[in-house]
Design goal:
With 215 residues, the protein is of the alpha+beta class. It has 7 helices and 4 strands; from the N terminus they run H-E-H-H-H-E-H-E-H-E-H. It has a 4-stranded antiparallel sheet. The protein binds flavin mononucleotide.
Length: 215
Amino acid sequence: MSRRTCRAFTSRPVPDGVIRTILAVARQAPSGGNLQPWHVHVLAGERMSAFKALIAAKLPAQPEGEGSEYPIYPPNLKEPYRSRRFKCGEDLYRTIGVERNDRPARLAQFARNYQFFGAPMALFFSIDRAMGPDQWADVGMFMQNVMLLITEHGLDSCPQEAWAVWHKTLGEFLPLPPERMLFCGMAVGHRDASAPINGLQTDRAPLEEFVTWVE
Ligand SMILES: Cc1cc2nc3c(=O)[nH]c(=O)nc-3n(C[C@H](O)[C@H](O)[C@H](O)COP(=O)(O)O)c2cc1C
């Protein structure tokens, strides 16, 4: 209940040892056949600054990046998913007083993804291209372990699919071997408690909407 997506971090660093401990426990995630189909790059320090500068230089000419290798959402998102996504966006922008029709302000907020919302560390999760939907689910379970452990260690996280549209630049920078596809980034650090955007509390559908009892 205390894990929440954080979208404003302080610059306080995350010790390497803490993230190492977190990853060592998170790897206990279950996976079909125990394939453990996840791979993580940890980015911090000078290399992270260099990467942020690289993206900042490219962003003005390519505000939508390079295009993603997989559909981040299905085309023509249907109900009830469409309304949920819409409400999430509305609630988020309301925390910082941005109106629905203020597109520049919305884009500026979204672009903060590409500075990791000020976080001092980032994780990038990739998966072998030979893997299918089952293994992508395994990577998701691993990521959830990582996020819960981050919370347990008094830190905060923001999973960031936004990075999928910079897969080429990121793939060259890390580098990612050609056989692995970037799934998701994750900003890691300490929450800026004074930032209004961190006040967002998302809701969830009631059990009646997603549980069917057969008994
Ligand atoms: C795989 C994944 C990718 C996400 N990508 C982004 C992102 O790029 N930028 C962002 O601000 N939030 C991102 N989110 C956060 C979701 O918007 C958030 O989890 C959702 O609104 C529920 O809010 P909560 O995490 O605070 O409970 C992502 C979440 C997941 C699970």
